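hey m, so remember when u said the tokens were messed up on ur end? i reran from scratch. heres the input so u can diff it against urs
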Amino acid sequence: MLLGVRHHGPGSARAVRAVLDVARPRVVLIEGPPEADGLIPLAADEDMRPPVALLAHAVDEPGRSSFWPFAEFSPEWVALRWALAHGVPARFIDLPAAHSLVREREEDAEPEGSAPPPEEEPLRGDPLAALAEAAGYDDAERWWEDVVEHRGTGGDVFAPFTVLEEAMGALREAYGTGGRDRDLVREAYMRLQIRAAQKDFGDDGVAVVCGAWHVPALRQKRTVAADRALLKGLPKVKADMTWVPWTNRRLARAGGYGAGIDSPGWYGHLFGAPDRPVERWLTKVAGLLREEDRIVSSAHVIEAVRLAETLAVMRGRPLPGLTETTDAVRAVMCDGSDVPLSLVRDRLVVGDVLGEVPESAPAVPLQRDLTRLQRRLRLKPEALERELELDLRKENDAERSRLLHRLRLLGVSWGEPTTSRGSTGTFRETWRLRWEPELSVRVAEAGVWGTTVLAAATAKAEADAVTAGSLADVTGLAERCLLAELPDALPVVMRVLADRAALDADVGHLAQALPALVRSLRYGDVRATDTRALAEVAAGLAERVFVGLPPACAALDAEAAQEMRRHVDAVHGAVGLLGDTVPGQQAARDDGLRPRWHSVLHVLSVRDTVPGVLRGRAVRLLLDEGALARDEAARLMGLVLSPGTAPADAAAWIEGFVGGGSGGGMLLVHDERLLGLVDAWLTGVPGDAFTDVLPLLRRTFSAYEPGVRRTLGELVRRGPGRRPSATAGGAGIPGFADELDSDRADAVLPVVRLLLGLDDRDSTRGDHVDRLNVDRENAEQERTDDNDLVGVAR
């Protein structure tokens, strides 16, 4: 009894169950890897919840793997459950995974577009699509729904399989293997297994559930010798099998069966609905939309059902399908908008269901340790993407962080760190979590490093340190070791880091490595990690950067100068953190680490061989640090913007000084002298040179916020020494004035009282108000005294 099915077809699943209930076979044979026969009893476990998949992977190469997915509405899953419920043996009869894993690797190595045998026309994709096209359908899903899912058997439970076998026979006659030579070997193996079962249980006692495409080939009379000849000499590997959770989204992709479905959530609903599937589906949709605060009433559901039924009649369909219900939802519940409709498709038509497997399922030791940690830390794998906020001051959150960082180091990217919307302190972390079935393969691969997550991450970090390609890779690895708290791996990484740093003479490499190293020091306080060795290497690395940076900045072209500028910014930030983050480093900072860096910047700012963008950047960093007086910065700018400097070099200097999103626009707004120098230089650039410097200037000033650009334009229009005033005829920009406007200041006091919770009836709070008034009067007196001094000076 050959039951040809559509993989993951709810109509096929119902038909299989009906035939098995009538025929009562003595054994059920199912398309699947025979190595999984020992795992079949787990399908009856109460903790097994589909969608799930059989995972086969090569023992010596876990990355070589394959999946056989099962949904609740998969005919193969229904056959398994029926056999277990009725005490009937069940077996898998497809080509063993030991062979198929090798063949899949060989097929992956074939060039794309390799031609099928010349005597056969290729049949790509789902064979059912060819039948749908022959029937005049442009959508195979709709054709399948019409001819199988929505039609009854008419009392003959075998009718669907008979008709489908005839259709597939016609396809096999027209296309042969359709370019699928691998199927010949698989079908030979299946025929041998069917013969063996028939010998044990009789011809009438065997039920075979397989893809409909294979039925005509399995029905053919072939000799045992011919089938064995096809299987002779097949290469194989040692393979392990287990059950793993699967997701609805993965069901929508081509899996181990080579068949995917576009709407697993819809098919699950059709299989599980006892009656009135359209009404029940549209009620689900209404519930989802209400959860999203859309107004959907019972009347909407009634009208949507009527519209779906009407559309089915107009289109000549036996019952409303997914297309009709979707059109009805769009028109009635979504007001014609596809925005809420996309939510319906994502949450219901596809769905974010993640299956579960029992603890007794075989697993590599690393997977068992990960499962234990997930349960202890209450981090349940979920198919739906979600954000996880961690406060590292809490022990449970700190352990979660360590686990996620260790998994990332092992290549198991269950969580991806993202920018936090709240606090930016080092004790906060935000992760985006989403469990994908492929991560089970990654865990199996990582199992070669150890039997626990901690041991595996430690061994992987040590190996990565030895094979790291650059110094920056080693410093990045050191940072990840601190984040993952791998105390046993850190000494190895630090030893490699010290050796690489001592041998690497490229200042760019050193400058690129320093920031990650210094960032790592920040984790010492919150993660209680000893970072003294790391701090010593960082300080030594900084000294080497100080010595080598001036020569490395000489005679660079424009592209190299821009890259070096990024290195200078990174080192500047690192030096700022190096003395402030780790206890015991303050003395090193006070002894000259920060002043040494300032000396390097001073050298860069005045050396003619250094590109203008680097000289300008050095001046700006010194000015921001308070290591350079504003007058001196203006003098250096004046020298650079003098007629003796090439316009391109002067423009590059300006970019380094006020460009790159460094707040240079506000600096020009508040310092008229610097703005006047830039304005005077810009208006004096010769016409033939202006075109050359325009792209660079546009890149510099286009990075400013619109408000800053508008204010600069107003200042330049009014000319130097004439700041716009909000009190001069009301035409200026608010916030600028030569003198204090008492009336405007008084108008702010009620708001200040409100913000501070002050009340004039409270004597204590009244003191605060008086103090504010006194401070304002003192400020006015000081301004008057300053004006008097200016008058005397004049």
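this time it looks ok to me. The chain has a mean pLDDT of 79. if urs says something different then somethings off w ur setup not the seq
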